[in-house]
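Notes from the 1:1 (GR / supervisor)

We went over the backlog. Supervisor wanted to see one worked example end to end before approving the batch request, so GR pasted a single chain during the call. The sequence is below; no edits were made to it. Supervisor asked that the structure be written out right there so they could see what the output format looks like.
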Amino acid sequence: MSGRAELDAESPVARLDLLRSSIGTLLVEGATEVVWESTDLVSGTAAVSGETTGTVVMTAGNRPLVGFHGDLAAVTLRHVRELRRALFVGGSGRSMGIRLADGSVVTASSDGAGPTVVLLLVIDGVIELRVASASRGDSSSAVHAEFGFEVAERFDFLSRDT
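Structure output shown during the call:
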């Protein structure tokens, strides 16, 4: 992939090279929600509105591995090997734009009736992006389940009930 790429029903998959998979921040424009699963199987969700469910995975730099910065969903690529997968959920019939640190842009669109989703997989430190359309857009949890995500309740090792 170089410069500009499009993900759609004809070509639904793009694989980044190791350099693009590990430098800077991957930003997704048009996502309303993101759900993630770390390599330790810690899962959570964040919405563009600021709501979170499950557990936020913090990096060694004390920043969220996946989350929102304003209206952009973001993945910190320096620590991407801690991420197993993430799912970016957009609106029905709407496209999403994915920006990388080197200026490369990937446009993801689907022609299905359900929400457009981009699945990010990390395979040996390399990012693979897949676009699809969710068939069940009636609730966030239905979309998560369709793509194999189950968000566990937050478990905080440091908190104590007093």
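Supervisor's comment: The two ends are 54 Å apart (CA to CA).
Batch request approved.
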